[in-house]
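User: Predict the full complex structure for these chains.
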Amino acid sequence: MAKANNDTADHIYKVVELVGTSKKSADDATQAAIARASKTLKHLRWFEVVQTRGHIENGKICHYQVTVKVGFTLDS
Amino acid sequence: MAKANNDTADHIYKVVELVGTSKKSADDATQAAIARASKTLKHLRWFEVVQTRGHIENGKICHYQVTVKVGFTLDS
Amino acid sequence: MAKANNDTADHIYKVVELVGTSKKSADDATQAAIARASKTLKHLRWFEVVQTRGHIENGKICHYQVTVKVGFTLDS
Amino acid sequence: MAKANNDTADHIYKVVELVGTSKKSADDATQAAIARASKTLKHLRWFEVVQTRGHIENGKICHYQVTVKVGFTLDS
Amino acid sequence: MAKANNDTADHIYKVVELVGTSKKSADDATQAAIARASKTLKHLRWFEVVQTRGHIENGKICHYQVTVKVGFTLDS
Amino acid sequence: MAKANNDTADHIYKVVELVGTSKKSADDATQAAIARASKTLKHLRWFEVVQTRGHIENGKICHYQVTVKVGFTLDS
Amino acid sequence: MAKANNDTADHIYKVVELVGTSKKSADDATQAAIARASKTLKHLRWFEVVQTRGHIENGKICHYQVTVKVGFTLDS
Amino acid sequence: MAKANNDTADHIYKVVELVGTSKKSADDATQAAIARASKTLKHLRWFEVVQTRGHIENGKICHYQVTVKVGFTLDS
Amino acid sequence: MAKANNDTADHIYKVVELVGTSKKSADDATQAAIARASKTLKHLRWFEVVQTRGHIENGKICHYQVTVKVGFTLDS
Amino acid sequence: MAKANNDTADHIYKVVELVGTSKKSADDATQAAIARASKTLKHLRWFEVVQTRGHIENGKICHYQVTVKVGFTLDS
Amino acid sequence: MAKANNDTADHIYKVVELVGTSKKSADDATQAAIARASKTLKHLRWFEVVQTRGHIENGKICHYQVTVKVGFTLDS
Amino acid sequence: MAKANNDTADHIYKVVELVGTSKKSADDATQAAIARASKTLKHLRWFEVVQTRGHIENGKICHYQVTVKVGFTLDS
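Assistant: Here is the predicted structure of the twelve-chain assembly.
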């Protein structure tokens, strides 16, 4: 999960849940969620994909919606 | 999950977990959690019931506790 | 999940489970399942990826198999 | 699950997944899904609630979306 | 889960699983299960809904069956 | 789950968890658990297999252990 | 899951959920569900047992109810 | 799960769910539940931790609540 | 879950997910997460352990990482 | 799970996942997996069925595929 | 799951769990795990994605980590 | 999960499942499993607790059995 370096070993992390969207791909929706999170949260460390879904229009995927959990270091 | 309108397709959503309580019903506990969330969060979009439980006193339900996940749009 | 527009708020949806296959990518297998569904089902609205797996030949992925749930509006 | 009467003991059942919507309550959304199913499927026997969610507008639940599995007898 | 009052902090609880039925609503079926449990078990403290299902007759819900876990204090 | 006959519609059921063992087969272990339960519990109605496992001796299954949930009607 | 032969690699599969019943055994209930499915569906390919349960009468299993998912090839 | 000795191979076990509490540690809460169970149940054989939680007061854990399943031999 | 006292029965709770780390024990990692949360959040009420993991160096656990959900009262 | 005899109480076990196949029955597929494991692994102690599935040809089960976890003692 | 050809119907498969990493995409991490497995294991047949996660540096995904289960034929 | 250092970013990891036992504590059983694994496996990196259980004798825990997944780097 979080990094194992000795200097970070006593850190506390918080995990938030986000949904990213993309017309291109599931990976791109994941990246969109993380890019948005990085605007307001420092020290993002890891993510985990929780769910991949999306909307369909005219028989085609119009966009992906990927739910991710994102972990970041809390200042001590 | 979130709405599929084209203008919102590239939005990012955040999901928070709340527990609403009510002496009346499970649905009412769900509404209480959402009403409270709407005081501090704008652009609430959807909810999902995660767990329904409650406390018993004198052999009767004294209140319901419903855990909900609530999704809302993050400003871009 | 389904769209929240007022005019569709009293719709009923059906959910079917499909497995799409592709030699190219997991996303492509998802699209293949949805493209096939759209030949016989009208009003497809959303999908959710349930499982991603595939077959291996000579030490390489020969194709992806993605199980998706697909939701569509039932005529009222 | 299905009924245990001797005369139905060798029946085969099919299970379909539906999403009912209602502005009123979660139970009402369940009933809406079953009412719609009964228009085209005979011999509905049981249901199971799989997920309860919904959409929020202006800080209030605008409608519930309840996913149910519905079982019915197949003609032998 | 159980109450946090200091005087009850070293209590042991037992959890039993019950299925309540009701023609009226899911909440009513939950209450029926708890009302029945309270006839033979003292010190009921909390419940958790495990499953909501029911039977259908003539295209309508004829009754709800709600499975609940109910926790109660064991005498020390 | 429980039977849908009108006369039993307002019954309350209790569910207990048992582990049956058999040297012969998984089904036989299930039957053993139910046969034992019927010695002390009246009105057994349904069962559900929760887990199938067992012990191995000298490279062969020496007995199956099947965990079942068993539901029965509580006297009203 | 589905077969890996090259000629079937771009097939799309549909998965349906059935409940088979049998007085004899769990395996027999599985076979009953598949036998019934094969009357109306061509190209059945695989099955997966989702749940094993059944009804009890007079302290004995009166029949097994096995829920299976069955996958079949959709014509392209 | 239960012991594999030949003489116990045809035993039937019952599983009950308990919640133990302790101000000291999660393991201590587990032991408390088992100690209480042993007052009224003979032949306890195994336990499994189902959930670890607890209450917080003044920013510190005031006690742990550990839910355990406990299996014991039924007299034949 | 949350306390059942009448005066708190209509409170709304929020649940956050944290990861605590400790070189000493799993319980200590849980405490670390809660201690950190109490620096910025008032009215912490309960926690639940979601996952216990950690890192290994030179064949020994160098620290535990425990993911906890922590619930606290929202001001009304 | 593993045996509780005092002399084996400080053993370490390894768990491997296998898929056995059989044209006859689910139990037979389980046995096939264990028989194969016993050719190369000593001290097999217990198994657990993880999944039961299989292939269909001409509307009939042509073989069962049962996934089992098998535990065995590691030499200390 | 495994192939259904008659000649392979009595094969036994083993399933191992691997984590592949890639800076490019989730699919690429899956392929990396399988490519590595094929160096030491013959007769790889299928894979299943168990978890998709990864690390973040400077607000961007620095690499994906995909956990896969990989099945292969054991020599009889 | 695994470490995020650039030099290890393209590593592949294998995950094995072990059961450690201890008369002392759950943490000690976890450590026992890892200590045993480190005798034959190099480059152990992380662990995850999958299940905590144990045996009871004379109304007391005689030993804990903790199932852990352990990840280690495969040589490239």
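Chains D and K do not touch (no CB pair under 8 Å).
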